[in-house]
Automatic annotation (TrEMBL):
One of its GO terms (biological process) is glycolytic process. Keywords: Cytoplasm, Glycolysis, Lyase, Magnesium, Metal-binding, Secreted. This is Enolase. It is an enzyme of class 4 (lyase). The active site is at E208 (proton donor), K356 (proton acceptor). One of its GO terms (molecular function) is magnesium ion binding. The gene is eno. Mg(2+) binds at D245, E304, D331. It catalyses: (2R)-2-phosphoglycerate = phosphoenolpyruvate + H2O. It holds the Pfam family Enolase_N. Its cofactor is Mg(2+). It is found in: Cytoplasm; Secreted; Cell surface. It comes from Humisphaera borealis. Binds a second Mg(2+) ion via substrate during catalysis. Mg(2+) is required for catalysis and for stabilizing the dimer. Its EC number is 4.2.1.11.
Amino acid sequence: MPIIERIVAREILDSRGRPTVAVTCGLRGGAVASASVPSGASTGAAEALELRDGDPARYRGLGCRKAVANVDGPIAKAILGQMLPDQISLDTLLIDLDGTPNKSKLGANAILAVSLAFARACAAERKVPLYQHFADMIGQPLRTLPRPTINLFSGGKHAGGQMPIQDILLVPTAATIDQCLADTFAVFYAAADLTSSRYQTRPLRADEGGLAPPFASIDDALTDAVESIRRAKLEPGKDVGIALDVASSHFFDHGFYNVGVADPRTPQGAGAHGGVPAAQPVDSLGMIEIVRAWVRKFPIVSVEDALAEEDWGHWPALKDAIGKSSLVLGDDFLCTNPRRIRMATDGGCCSALLLKVNQIGTLTEAAEARRLAKDAGWMVTVSARSGETEDNWLADLAVAWGDQIKIGSITQSERLAKYNRLLEIEAETGLPVVKWPG
C-alpha cells in the first residue's frame, strides 16, 4: 500500500513563460515520480482557482511561490507517512484539507500537482505504464487511442483577438496516430504557405502553436482551412474534418454576442454568414443560426462553447440545431465540474465534454466528471491548456479516458511532447484510433 515519504514542490515556467507548479513524490517502496501542471488563458468562471502570489514586481503577480509553499508546508504535513490505498484516498484528503468549493485556500495548481505526481509514482511502483494505471483507476480496459483534434488557426485569447473565435482545428480521419500527424503536417504547412502569400505576413503562431494571420472574417478563416486541406491533396470532410473552439463567453456581453458576423435571420445577413460584419451584436438565437450556417457550409464535426458558459437556456436549442452533424462540446460551460455536467445532462445541453483536469483540481474529481459524461452517452475530449509544460502525462490520460485529445498544433515542444508520447504508446500497444467522425 503506497505511503508517501517525500513530497517537494518547485516553481517552473510554462510555455508562455509564466510560473506554474511541479511536484516530486517519493513512496516508501522506492518509487519516485514528478509531474507538472498547466495553466489556461481562456478560463471558465467555474474553474478551480490557480493560486498566484499577486506580487506585481514579480511575474506581474503570476508567481506560484504561495502554491509551492502550500505543498511543502500544510500538504506535506498532512500526507507524509500516511497509508493511502488509492488515488481517491489521497485526493479526498487534499480536498478536505483545502475545505473550499474552488480550492482557493491551497490552490488547485498545488493540489493537482500532488495528485498527478502521486499517480505517476504509484504507476512506477506497480511497474505498469501510466496509461494502464489511469485505465485501472476507472476500471476500463484499453481499447482505442484518442483521435487528435489539432490546432490550425487561432484567434481569441490565444492570438490577441484578431478574430473573435478561439481556434479552428483539424480532425484527421486516418486510422493511426502516425498518419494523423503526417496528414496534419501536410495541411499545416500548406496553410502556412497559403496565408503567407495571401496576407503578406510571416507565419506567426499563437499560444498553442496555431497560425494567426489577420483574417478579414471568420468565414475567410474557414474557407482558408478548407483550401489548405485541398492544397495538401486531401479531401475536406473525408480525409480531414474541422472542429471549432468558439469560446463564446469571451465576446458575450449583456445577453448579446459580439461575433462580428451578420445575423442570418435578417435580410442584411442573408447569404453572408461569415463575411459581413454585423451592425449590431446578435442574441443567442442569432448566434445559434450563425453556428448552424457554419456547420452547413463547412465540414465541421465538433463545435466547442458555441454559446456562453451561463447561457443555459439556449444550449438545448443549440444541440437541436447542430447535434446531428456535429459534437456539441462543453468546455467553459462545463469546467470538468460534476455539478455542471449533471445540470447539462439533465437539460439536454451537450453531446461531449472537454475534460481539463486542472479545471477541477484532482484526478478523482475529473474521473467522476468523465463517468457522468460517458453515462450520458457523451464523447470525451481530453484537453491540454494554452500554458503547457514539457510533461506528457496528458497523452497517457487521453489514451485511458478519452475519445479525442486536444493538445494544440504540431509545433512547439510542449505540444510535441504529448504527440510523441502518443506515437510511443501506439507502437507499444498497437491499438487503433477511435473511429470518429463518421
